[in-house]
Amino acid sequence: MQEFKNYINGQWVAAKSGQSFENISPANHEDIIGKFPLSGQEDVNDAVAAAKAAFKKWRLVPAPKRGDLLRIAGDIFKRRKKELGKIMTREMGKPTFETEGDVQEAIDTAYYSASETRRLFGKTAPSEMLNKFNLSFRVPVGVCGIITAWNFPVAVPSWKILPAIAAGNTVVYKPSKDSPHSGVVFAEILEEAGIPPGVFNVLLGKGSMGNLIVEHPDVNLIGFTGSTNIGNQIGEICGRTNKKCSLEMGGKNPQVVMPSADLDSAIEGVLWGAFGTTGQRCTATSRLIIHKDIYSKFIDMLVAKAGKLKLGDGLKEGTQVGPVIHDTALKEIDNYVKIAVKEGGRLVLGGERAIEGDLAKGSFYKPTIIADITKDMTIFREEIFGPVLAVSKAESFDHALELANGVQYGLSSSIYTNDIGEACIAMRDIEAGITYINSPTIGAEAHMPFGGVKGTGNGHREGGWTVFDIFTEWKTVYIDFSGKLQRAQIDNY
To answer: Which residues are catalytic?
Structure first.
């Protein structure tokens, strides 16, 4: 069995405890990917110390020179795209056409971050006094602790790690225990690209180890993607310890379909949004809101199409929907379905584990659709993170928007309509960080801001130019060449 190591200060090292954990493929529980170090406090201390020491030099490297290394990293991600796609599929399940898209996001982010190192613009402003000059510019924050989920084991880390490094920070990264191999390859790529020792460090381990990073006094910033529950806990710690903190958490994303919509296009959108990545995306379409005039017709069309989706091992040709991440998640998903039916939902597709043939070896759950969901039902409100779609009937356009906004989350949203007025009102009034018109709730692009409102996040936006607001601080400088004391607000009026 292959054994993997942490990456600390440019060296591959075992955990100080000597303990390890196994990573098992969700598509085949007999397939053990390898043993990974179970890191603890000593390992965290070593990684943070390395990052802290490296920051002293890395922050002084001219930003465009940092960008040159990220551009090389993008080239390596591109060269290893298919290989890394297969590694990701094996350890987290989604089909290779999806995992290769995951790698493409890292490629795009590497090139974009590299280009932004020449656009880390500051601002100058006129002084209110004679012979005085005012300016401001960005400076790096310091040591960044990055903690991410398993469902996008390369793309989501790239959104945080690459801009953080571009801005002059150093990083201690904890991948999910369910996708550690991808984190190892991320380190291999940055090492080959020439990122200096200590600038990027990877610690492998289980969830509790992430808390050690969050609590560490020499970590200046936390970037987190994961559940709202864990994110809120991290936010509390960062508030108490005065750390900068960016949280990207849950979603309960709606797709609204109005009578004027192209129904075939809307069907394709909801199939991809609800069942792509087996529904295991923070941006997944977990709620479908259909206008009453087309409600029954649209459900019939949807069930006919969804029932033909091919479930299977993501490494096999033709697979459209892979497994869920593990049996614990599968049981939670199945429990949500049972609750939905008990509360009055109408099961129209799926609703059970798939055990046919080789599917019995993995954690496969059939694509599931539950109709007649009302806003007081559990499945309407709570994130499931699986291939389960809750369908609700809207009495009007206004009611559709009321339903869309009727949850604690506000990440992504979608409306299918050919009425320009409805589209514009939806763009204005849906409470979400992202709104798609005539496309599904998934499909973010690397050069645009990504994040949500309400229970989804704490106001920051990853992706695009806005990510540098997370990974930099503003410094203001006043230069007085008058040769005398000038007291602002006192001597000038």
So the answer is: 248, 282
Banded pLDDT at 493 (limits 50, 70, 90): confident
Does residue 221 form part of some domain?
yes
> How many helices (H) and strands (E) are present in the chain, helices listed first?
15, 21
Residue-averaged pLDDT of the chain: 97
Helix (H) or strand (E) holding 67: helix 63-79
- 493 or 449, greater pLDDT: 449
Q: Tell me if 10 is assigned to some domain.
A: yes
C-alpha 125/C-alpha 72 separation (Å) is 36
- By CB atoms closer than 10 A (0-12, 13-18, 19+), residue 369 is buried
Number of domains observed in the structure of the chain: 2
* Encoded amino acid at 19, one letter: Q
The model's pTM is 0.96
Q: Which domain holds residue 425?
A: 253-437
- Label residue 153 by pLDDT band (50, 70, 90): very high
SS3 at position 63: helix
Name the pLDDT band for 199 (thresholds 50, 70, 90). Answer: very high
CA torsion angle 83 88 93 95 (round to 10): -40
- CA distances for 325 relative to 82, 118, 402, 417, angstroms: 21, 40, 33, 34
Statement: residue 492 has pLDDT above 90: no
Check whether residue 242 and residue 330 sit in a common domain: no
Residue 124's Cβ-count burial label (10 Å; 0-12, 13-18, 19+) is exposed
